[in-house]
Amino acid sequence: MLDPTTYNNLILLPNRNLTGYYLLAQSGGAPVQNAVPAQTGANGSAGSIGVGRSPFFPLDYYLDNLEFDSFYPGTGSGGATKLSTVNFTVTEPNGISLLKNLYSAVTNMYNTMNVSTPGEPVNYLSAQYCMVIRFYGYDTAGNLVQPIAQRSGVTDRSAVVEKFIPFTITGIDFKVANKLVEYSIKGAGVEQVNNYSTIKGSIPQNFTFNGATVKDILVGSITQPTASTAAGDQTRNNVPIQSSPPGNNNVQDPAQRAQAARAATTGPIP
C-alpha cells in the first residue's frame, strides 16, 4: 500500500526501492515487522526502517492466479507498454477479515499522512497499491543462479526481472470454497481509472448557462474597465476621484447640482 508521497516517488524517481511501502501480503509469507516504513527522500535516499508490515495485517494472506494485461500506448507514457488491468486471488484460511483490515490500514495511513481528517470516512478502493513481481533463475540442480549483470536500482539483486505494478482496486468479490475464503480482486492502472471515469467529467449540480455563442457561455461577456475604476477609489496622490472634471456643471450630486444652477442665474451665493 502506498501513500501519495511514495506513489509520486515511484513514478518520478529512476531507482526502485521499497521504502515507504506498507506491506500487506507476500507470497510464501511476509516477515513479522510491524513498523511504519521510512519515507524515500527527494534524491532517492532510503530511510533506516525501509518497508514495514502494516500492523493491521498480522496474519499472512496468500496470493494466487495472477493475471495482468498491458497495451501499447504509443507516445506520452515513457514506456513500451502500459498496464491495463490486473487480477488475482487472495486466500484466507481462517476467517473473513481482509476487507476490515484493508479499510483500517488505509484509514490509519491517511490520518497519519494528513491525507484525510480523523473521523472522515475513506475509500480504501481509491488508495494506491503496488504489486512487486520478481522472476528468478535456477540451474539443473535447482540452485538459484545469480544474474550475470549486477544491476542497480532494484530491490533484490538475485531476481532476473523485477516489475513494479502500481494499481487501484476496482472491485473485490469473495466466496467460501473448500473451507477457505477466496477473494477475487480486480485492479487497473491509476491513471487509467482516473482518465476513463466520470469523476472529474461530470457536474454534480444543475447549472443554467446563458449566451449566444459557446464563448459567451464558457468565458462570459468581457467588460472593458474605465480609467477611474481601474485606479480604484483614490488617485496616485490620494485625492478622491471626481466623476466630473473641475469647473464642469455636470455634477452628479443633487445638492451640488441645485447649488450650481442657482449660482448660474443669481450669481455667487454668500
Structure commentary:
The chain is of the alpha+beta class and 270 residues long. It has one domain (4-195). Helix content is 20%, strand content 23%. The protein has 6 helices and 9 strands, in the order H-E-E-E-E-H-E-E-E-E-E-H-H-H-H. It has helices spanning 4-12, 98-112, 190-195, 214-218, 227-231, 254-266, and strands at residues 22-23, 52-53, 62-71, 82-92, 129-135, 137-138, 144-145, 161-177, 180-188. The strands form 3 sheets. Strands 3-4-9-8-5 form a 5-stranded antiparallel β-sheet. Strands 1-2 form a two-stranded parallel ribbon. A two-stranded antiparallel ribbon has the order 6-7. A hairpin with a 2-residue loop joins strand 8 and strand 9. The longest helix is centred in the middle third of the chain and has 15 residues, at 98-112. It is elongated and about 115 Å long. The N and C termini lie far apart (87 Å). Residues 39-50 have low confidence and may be disordered.
